[in-house]
Amino acid sequence: MDKSIKLSPAQPLSKVCLDKGLSDFEAVFNFVKQLPYGRTTNRSDFTQVLQEHKGTCSTKHALLKAIAIENDIDDLKLCLGVFEMNPKNTPKIKYVLEQYHLDYIPEAHCYLRHHDDIIDITFNSTTEPSFSETLQYEVHIEPNQIGDYKVTFHKSYLKTWIKNEQLHLSFNQLWKIREACILAISE
Hints:
Layout: H1 12-19, H2 25-34, H3 48-52, H4 57-70, E1 76-85, H5 94-99, E2 105-114, E3 117-119, E4 135-141, H6 148-165, H7 171-186
Antiparallel strand pairs: 1-2, 1-4, 2-3
């Protein structure tokens, strides 16, 4: 992927980036990568990353994919994957999982894929994405699918997982545990 592609001033998101002094895709990529992890006011509106200067896996990657679409960068895919979120790949959740006697919890995660390479800028890290070893499922999505579609998909996946694993937890209990994990990651 050629990150040096100049942004088109005729495209709405690209124009916002240009107004911020970000002239090419690489500059936007690096800008978004360095932003802290955090939910924006509207978790479905990836454009808020540019105003609120923070984002999640969903909003950061959807924004980059939308800008790639605007600028005819076709070889960058937005992915929704489910991985085993555990203390090894997400150390901040160790105590939450221990409290509920869980080894892991399936987590829906958005990231980019360029051919065979996974690109994850959720956190400003240069290390290999830690979730890739436990990836259970992956599908390509469009930026507008990071809201309701992602949440509905994730909830459905968790309900099936509870049943298949014969867990003695209700879906609501598991979702609260998942939210406690997300809170731990945010701190």
